[in-house]
Prior knowledge:
alpha/beta
Amino acid sequence: xxxxxxxxxxxxxxxxxxxxxxxxxxxxEAITVVLPVxxxxxxxxxxxxxxxxxxxHVVCLGLSGCATGLTLERVAINLIDxxxxxxxxxxxVDRPVIPGAPAARFSTLPVKAMLRxxxxxxxxxxxxxxxxxxxxxxxxxxVLHAAAxxxxxxxxxxxxxHVPLEDAVDLDSQERGLRAAMAxxxxxxxxxxxxxxx
Length: 198
């Protein structure tokens, strides 16, 4: 297994982003990259990262200010609707991530099995049906789109986890939950109704 894990730099006026700090804790265990919170930079870098590293799995991390635990994303939508400018000052509204591409792409990681692993550690976790419409979603869409172009036998399994602010879940706990999720990247998916999480 060869895993690429990405995080994001601070954005929106903050000087910290827990996704970037989690990345530093995984150095040496996975390929780790901290990305700029910029739509154009993400578009350019994703194909190069996959081509250079040829990972078997890609786990993208990003911050959600409203998350109360680790949030495993199920769907990336082909839509950018930026509530705030990115770190390059770009604020696209009602534009596709990739013109002419499918309206949505689904995570190819076993998100429900990963969720159960997170919850087994006592760390709060949940499933989310959409990664939003900001740079996090754009990253997931680009990763899934680029991965789909690989031959099936070398196609990486890809997904996204939103992490909460440290006020909601401290960084050590986030790391413990993340490691539990990542230990289940290559297992078979399990199936249960979303309503069981309410």
